[in-house]
Every structure is written in structure tokens, then in C-alpha cells.
Amino acid sequence: MHNEDVENDPLESPAVKKHLSADLVALLRKTQNDEPVDENTLSIVADIVSAFAYSGLLEFVYLPNADDGGDDEVEPAALFAVEQVDLDVDRGSVLLLGDVTHVHNPPITLEGIEYDEDEDR
């Protein structure tokens, strides 16, 4: 998050308020309150997320829990790019599907990710 005040409620971000319609913010608020998510809302969210994925702007990092209290075995961290967005109406969620683009062993922090400028992401 860019701003600690917004960290607890990203829907209060000035950027969100500027770029998302009041109707969409209201839909997101509704789902935040544990109300059932209807297929129309999921579809809207999936379309928006899909646009970001299509633009190559969505990547996710899996960071293993270092404080699991287990043995000293270290799990690798993985970076993956979102390539497809789908709906799971039964679960009320938008699914992000993609490919692992990097595996880092030992694990890294977000600050430790380095990109090769010549590499396609």
C-alpha cells in the first residue's frame, strides 16, 4: 500500500475513488460485509482483473512461511504471471490462472526480486 491510512481499507484510497465508479465501490463494499456475491459482480471484477492481466501488469509472489516452527527445510519462493481469469460462482470468487515465471531458492523477500530487463514477463 502507498498510504498507511488506506492499508486497512483500500476502498478508501483516493486512486480507487477516482478510477472506480461509485457503483463498483458499493458492490465491493457489499461483498466485504460477507454478503453473498452474485455472478454479475464476479463477472465485473473478472473483466477488470482480466484487463490488468492482459496488459501484463499482474504478477504474484508465493513467499513460504519462514516461521512455521518446522524443520530447517527451506521452500522456494515462486513468482507467477497471471494469464487467465475465470469465475468460480459456487465459491464466489475470481480465479487467477498463470504460469510460474521464476523460482527462487532460498526464499526471497519482495525487495529481493530482480527483473532481467531483456526478459519477457
Short structural description:
The chain is 31% helix and 23% strand. It has 121 residues and is an alpha+beta fold.
Q: Would you mind describing this structure in some detail?
A:
The structure is a single chain. Helices cover 31% and strands 23% of the residues. The two termini are 23 Å apart. Strands 1-2-3 form a 3-stranded antiparallel β-sheet. The protein has helices at 4-7, 14-19, 22-32, 39-54, and strands at residues 59-62, 77-88, 93-104. β2 and β3 form a beta hairpin. The chain is globular. It has 4 helices and 3 strands, in the order ααααβββ. With 121 residues, the chain is an alpha+beta fold.
Layout of helices and strands:
Blueprint: H1 4-7, H2 14-19, H3 22-32, H4 39-54, E1 59-62, E2 77-88, E3 93-104
Antiparallel strand pairs: 1-2, 2-3
| Number of distinct beta strands | 3
SS-based class:
alpha+beta
Strand order within the widest beta sheet: 1-2-3
Broad shape? globular
Ends distance = 23 Å
Alpha plus pi helix count: 4
List low-confidence stretches.
Answer: none
Mean pLDDT across all amino acids = 77
- The helix-strand sequence is HHHHEEE
How much of the sequence lies in strands comes to 15-25%
Largest sheet: 3 strands, antiparallel
Query: How much helix is in the residues?
Result: 25-40%
Taking Cα atoms only, what radius of gyration do you get, to the nearest Å? 17 Å
